[in-house]
Amino acid sequence: AAAGDIAAGENFLTAIRPFVWRAQLDFGAVEEIRALTLRIRESYEGPADPSPGFDIKRGRGGIREIEFYAQTHQLVHGGRDTSLRVRGTRAALDALAAAGWISTENAVTLGDSYDRLRMIEHRLQMVHDRQTHALPEGAALDNVARLDGLADGAALVAELTEITARSARIYEELIGAPEAAPVAVAMPTSALTHQLGTWGFAEPDVVAERIESWRDGRHAAIRSPQAVEAWDRLAPALIQAIAHSDDPMRAITRWERIIENVPSAITTFRLLDARPDLLNRLVAALTLAPALSDELARKPELLDTLIDRNALDLPGDIAAIMARMRGAAIRDDYEALLDAIRVVTGEIRFALGIQLIEGLADPIDIARALSRTAEAALNLAAEAAAQEFAINHGRIAGSELLILGLGRLGGGALTHASDLDIVYLFTGDFAAQSDGPRPLGATRYYNRLASRVSAALSVPTAQGALYEVDTRLRPQGNQGPLAVSCEAFGKYQREAAWTWEHMALTRARVLHGSPDARAALEAVLAEVLHAPRDKSALRDAVLEMRAEMAKHKQPGGPLDAKLARGGLVDIEFVIHYLQLKGEAADGAPLAEVAPQAFDPDLATALAGLISAGLLSDTLIEPLALLRRMLIAGRLLAPGGRVPPPSGARVLARACGFDSYDALVQAFAAARNVVAGVWKQILGTDILDSEQQEHTR
After folding, report:
1. Among candidate residues 212, 299, 220, the one with its CA nearest the CA of residue 252
2. From its phi and psi, is residue 657 left (phi > 0), alpha (psi between -120 and 50) or beta?
3. Over the stretch 28-60, which tens digit does the pLDDT of each residue have?
4. Residues 52 and 148 in one domain
5. Please, which of 367, 560, 609, 657 could form a disulfide with 614 given CB 3.0 to 4.6 Å?
6. Is residue 315 situated within a structural domain?
């Protein structure tokens, strides 16, 4: 906004921002710019190359085409990359190069050409003090050249010829040459059937009829003329990629679910057509990972994330993820921020899923990245909910909300199927009152605020759901208040908590709160975990809990690395038992000998127990294998069931094995090792008890 009602102008620019900077990539913009360029070139009546009458703004390789080059890239990528939302062509070119969307060489070439063309434009307009972009003839051209420090008009024309040719070549790499009309998939049934048969489909006639039905208007995603055209361009390559997958019919069915569920898919079709390298990743998601396929059916724009420069890198730290979430908000308000949290979380989770099935990262690193993402979402949602809540109810001086993460969240090892186990606490006097227009007592204040935070994390918005939040591990479970004071929490844990609640605390980690409040709560946790216990009663309680769990939570399938006896739960129980027992092998306090033994991360805790002489290193490899199996299995073998052959191969590779058979053998060996350690520490034979349970 430059004049008039500046505030109204700024509000208008804010309101139209989502329409300019679209969250979903639209490669149709390139086609539209190509068409516009062709119309401009066709209507241009001057010489094609620099000479008298050549327009340095509208001519080929001129000022406008350099501006179009920068603006097209900004439109395509700027909805997702906020660093591109800059004014000025040279600034845009620099930003595009810095973000990796164009090469530094092209940015420098076009930037220098743009600056030079603008300088020559100024010289042209200085000669007769009028707005013009056309090169004059004869002496007038010589005058312009000499004004610019050149010998004569011929030198200027030669320089412009070189500049515009270089710029035009780069611009035409973006827009390409005019393309012929696409060949439609809706060829005669016999031809399509023959092609599908050539690609190896078992019943090509049935599949051909099914594919042809997609474009008959029954699906909104392929109904408009533009959508049909975009689909026709994409279909041959997509169907061929599906045909070459390990499970074509599964991919066909899941792709069909996507086009059935979404109201529009034209931008997805254009994206896949513009970036055919994404086809194999799409097909992998369709055939290997039901969870990713289901996400795509709800939000096909998730494919956009895969063209980002760093899409297949692990996400940064929590602060970087939070910054990305804030930057994705289309407005500066609470609802827009909650939407942004959901969008970015979904993008990261999807990209991490692709990394897992392509073997680009260790499943353990993916679990840590999922945990960082959840922590970022949780902290940002908690901050935003607290600010929104304070508008009506104010704040409580000397008091704040704390959030404790437990389970896999506390241990920094989330999977794609994990919920968030959290406990809400607050500091300060429970009898204090807030200072807002509608004041509340501390207990009511923090219980209502905690409910708001849970809603911010779990209630679906326009961008869908986020996480399932589980608060049942709070004092007194579902019967107790949602948030309690740290003082009441400590008293409950010292005086009334069950052994299983103390076991849960071994994975506890403070996720939200000021440094001082975190330190105070961590001291409470340490006091509870390091307290002396009756060792015989502890052992009996652990055995009883695991037996009850085995009775009521049976393994979901032969690959259930979590619940199978000798699996991950049994390792956790052994570790937690030794942590709560609290003594090193020589009887010294465990917390003093090996403080890392109380780390919420299981691998770190195991290392601490080994250093304290309580365990040998034989559990290190089984723990790593079981963790990888669980993390990868949540995507590839849900419930521990045996996946299809293609998924079995990917699962084996994710766990570090060349074949599925080798993975199964290693799983059996790991369970035997865990069972041996269990018997050594707790004195029972868990594999024998499992076999007896199965024979009943």
Report:
1. 212
2. beta
3. 666 677 778 778 888 888 898 999 999 999 999
4. yes
5. 609
6. no
